[in-house]
User: Fold this.
Amino acid sequence: MTVTIKDVAKKAGVSPSTVSRVLSGHPRISLETSRKVKVIMEEMGYTPNMMAKSLVSKTTNSICIILPKPAEELFSNLFFMELIRGIVTQSSRSGYDVLISSGANEKEELESVSRLLKGRRVDGVILLYSRKDDAVIDFLESGGYPFVLVGRSDRYENILSVDNDNIMAAYDATNHLISMGHERIGFVSGPPNLIVSRDRLEGYRKAMEKNGLEMRAEWIVEGEFLQDSGYRAMSFFMNLPNRPTALVAVDDMVSFGVLRGLNELKYKVPEDLAIVSFNNIPLSELSSPPISSIDIGIYHLGYTASQVLIQSIQKPDNHDGYTNRFVIPHRLIVRESSMYSPVKK
Amino acid sequence: MTVTIKDVAKKAGVSPSTVSRVLSGHPRISLETSRKVKVIMEEMGYTPNMMAKSLVSKTTNSICIILPKPAEELFSNLFFMELIRGIVTQSSRSGYDVLISSGANEKEELESVSRLLKGRRVDGVILLYSRKDDAVIDFLESGGYPFVLVGRSDRYENILSVDNDNIMAAYDATNHLISMGHERIGFVSGPPNLIVSRDRLEGYRKAMEKNGLEMRAEWIVEGEFLQDSGYRAMSFFMNLPNRPTALVAVDDMVSFGVLRGLNELKYKVPEDLAIVSFNNIPLSELSSPPISSIDIGIYHLGYTASQVLIQSIQKPDNHDGYTNRFVIPHRLIVRESSMYSPVKK
DNA sequence: CCTCCTTATGGAACCGTTTGCTTTACTCTG
DNA sequence: CAGAGTAAAGCAAACGGTTCCATAAGGAGG
Assistant:
């Protein structure tokens, strides 16, 4: 049988309350008793029952990650795994356990979250996406449950969120190309309904504008976060009369598509087309040539999300109402794909 | 305040026990009462408190995944994420929640597992690795806790595990090359202390032997599950006087390295060297040329692990002592990298 | 020397469920 | 019509902790 607090108490010749107090470091316990009890706990191999603890304390010391449903793609998987690592590491340091949940659809997701939170199985939630409207967010907000969003939502202004400054990141990426001497720079964007696509596009625009460079509509192509989009964008760009000498792609996968296409057509990177993209997945440095990429600090994103959430769980009142958006720094990793200055005409 | 079973009972004019029985579908509750109570539960937005439930039932309806510590590599991340998806999906179908845990080192891992299991926070554990000796496994076994291993351990014969038949998989891969007409086939192995490396090597051996093909020691190279190993193996093979016309690589990443090397030296795949590898990561079909690979059904591996574990939790006695190793089928995905029959001399 | 604190501990209620044992009120049977 | 049998629901004791309140012992102050 499992050894309980009562067993320890009996053996130590004290009351259960005393044992409990020893456990929680209560000030009014004599050193002598404390030592004695601790020895006996060790001897008997006592481990506190978390359920009983949770029942009375109304706190579980665990949080929950909501995993989006489909996310079959390569990057999503890498992204989520890295994020999870960050979350789990930090949570574990703060003494929290992490639960993973996902549902086949939004309704299931909502049910699951509701069950976990109302059923007092977790203390808070990390949401790993930024959909535009969201029943789950509504539920969390109206229920007053602690949660943080990884990503950004423009509909909900004052909720806790952890994100990159994608506008700035794209600005930096574009600027890097400009500083290498490029003037005709293309942009391969992602789905326009994603905030990240829009932000990165805006950053590109800003950089071009700031530097007084021409911006042609035909230099901006919309796509997915997939190789194919890159492949298609590439062939479109390369057939343009006055084609770009460089491009910024919203995602490394897109770059791979571009690379593959250019390779087939015997173009050279970065001489014929310089490339910078985002996310810096492990493969970026392994392709030929290695791709310059903006590292968005995924692990750090997760780590911070956990920190923010747990903080908000422990002192819900501490929220100042201002700093609810946490920005994780990005950094540009320059590799071969952009190490070339075009010859000026 | 949260609404409890007592609140519902009071409002419905019945006793808490009756409400509880309605909840669990007890046979001796009249239809009338049952309906009435259900309506009131709905009205009041009642959600059972899992902690209280767990406390009395001594069961948590949740399992825990132990994530290995470093696993910085690309494949590991893809592998784990896919596995987690499988586990989470199946667990959720069985009404179980999934906890993720990891520790910085084996000691921390053990502490964590011990706390979770002895503290009654989870009912069972899925181990995602197959180290040779393992304090965690020892703890789980001696404590009689339900757990399953993803992977194979040869030291522990009678524990539940879910795995591929890597010997057969390698046999199939090799056989495929043989049936295409190859006779000189190389093998790039992984670290020799990993069971998966040894199994795959053995499968290769078996296939060669069975077909009466010559096996030269120089055709077998040891490496890591990394591009670099492939790159090095490639240059070694290609410099051999009577070089292989095909090779089997333990991992797709290795193939990528081989591919990169061959590309640099202007060799053609599959004409100069045909390639088959393992794991069928999403990138395999995107490289040029796409790589033939053995799909090991990672998602399925996770799905089954969860199934087996939950089964073992629910009826621990049902274990027949024979079928404790569950084998997930693999399948060969033939792509361009092996679609070529060498010209016989 | 008695009262009043202070300090260390014990007692008991409670957290929200489940469940074995009763109790109650019928219905059936001989 | 009495006794047995049965269906439906209630009572109360757990489950393993925490914590408020009470208590006992010892020391200080008057």
